[in-house]
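Weekly modeling sync, notes
Attendees: S.R. (lead), two postdocs, one rotation student

Agenda item 3: backlog of single-chain predictions. S.R. asked that every request posted to the team notebook include the full sequence so nobody has to chase files. The rotation student volunteered to paste the first one in as an example of the format we agreed on. Action items at the bottom.

Example entry:
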Amino acid sequence: MTDQRPYAALLAKGEDRRQLILAVAQRLLRTYGWRGITLGQIAREAGVSPAGLLHHFESKEQLLNAALDVRDAHDDARADRTSDDIIGQLRQVPRRFEDTPDLIGMFAVLQMENLDPAAPLHDRFLGRHRAAVETIAETIRRGQRTGRYRTDLDPAVKAVEIAAFLNGIEASWLLDPSIPLTEVFREYTDSLARQLAPPADSR
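Predicted structure, as returned to the notebook:
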């Protein structure tokens, strides 16, 4: 049987280089946005040749989407699609901010750069935003069905409000990382919990 170890090592090295390119791209995108960087700059920062970068990513758009795929996968892995507790989920968000600042920053910068419908990633960001709002709304609906939350409010409207808070606090924290993130989330979620709580006589 042919020894596959050299080939496996080569594949592992290639994957490591791909991940390094993605990490560098995320950091540069957070700082400069997609209009402010080139593939050549990313290659230099990653210590690879332009040809080496193009071996892994055939175009700037492919690299941008791959970087966003990492962010989406990170979020999806932490999403509980069966939970009826939106408050508990929101209270975990500050840790995600602090654990992955480059992913948070990259996403925020690219989203602002792609608000125009003609922008290359506009449809992706719009679809992701709508999916996030619907995920929040469905969590609230589950809470209403289980009696955790009051039923006389519109989950779709409340979900838009929550998504707006998350977008706003992301921008505020990226601008000023010294803000007391955990305390702000605690204050907001305590207020939200009071708003969502069913009347005392219905519990």
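Discussion: group reviewed the output briefly. The chain has ten helices and no strands.
Action items: rotation student to repeat for the remaining queue; S.R. to check formatting next week.
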